[in-house]
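Allow me, if you will, to draw on your knowledge of protein folds for a short while. A protein sequence and the structure tokens that stand for its backbone fold form the material at issue. I would ask you to consider whether the tokens describe a fold that such a sequence might reasonably adopt. Thank you for your consideration; the sequence and its tokens are set out here:
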Amino acid sequence: MVNSHNPAGQPIDGGERPRQIAALLQLVPSLAELISDFERPDPTVGLYIYCDPIWYDYVKPLLEEGRDIDPGFFTWLEELSSSDDNADRNLASAGFLEVFGDFPAWLKILRRSMGPATLRLSHETEVNWGREQSQ
């Protein structure tokens, strides 16, 4: 998905990607071109600009087709979910786990590949949304 404005697949502003996204690309390099299409030069946009393309153009189509998601994606979610940094946990929860919970059948499938911290955060997220009971 290289576009004419960004043929190298690098951040549009020429700067560095946020560390969380750089970590994802280390684990799932195939997402680099997809992500570069959605990067913006405005630093106020924040990390959540990356969530929609990862969900709508990567995770969701694979689920619809019954195909596997790269295990590196789940490793990355586990790193975020187990981080001491609130921003990391919030990115996992608000950026991905909340959306996964909108699709209960897919959430069940996705949970099979989640690590323990991601499973806990997913359950907490679902409890907060009133979609699951606390244990």
